[in-house]
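Entry:
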Amino acid sequence: MRLRNLLLVAATFVVLLSLAGTLLLATNYKHLGNLVRVLLLIRSQYLYRVDTAVLVDGAIKGMVEALGDPYSLYLDPRTFGHLREQIEGSFGGLGILVGVRDRRLTVVRSYENMPAHRHGIRAGDVIVKIGERSTEDMDLETAIDLMRGPVGTEVTLTVLREGVKEPVRYTIVRERIQVPTVESRPIDQVGVVHLAISQFTAQNG
């Protein structure tokens, strides 16, 4: 196991050297050596076992943050996937916008003609369970991950609604969701229209 860990760290070191480039290696090799030394110390001396990939991701984030540039950001694969879904404006889901209100996962909006809306889920409903998992103390990102998924698969939401004593369970089939990012409504009788753009995505064009 010890040999395997050393080989893994050595492989990580090789990747870092490749990314650093010849000039960086020639002028700042001591700093790279310090980085590898810290990796070795954490893996051998830290109280708990830590995945090397987590450490490398943390090092990359630190390097990008050290630039001091608010427009430069490192995204891990999971976060990048969410961003791509947001930019493309479509994903497998239920067609609801949720947020945390009074520490409870709450439906902010249920989009018309989408799966959740057709099943009767309304704005203001409190989601207490997704599947069999309680949403108590669940962060928003985890909740969204659980509700999204492959098109055609099912997810069950347990909902509390004001004026209804018992929780209501809805089993909903995920569909390809295209969130309306541009909405319009007439505001007078002379052809003036109010346009609202909630976010910029590939669908806006």
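The mean pLDDT is 77.
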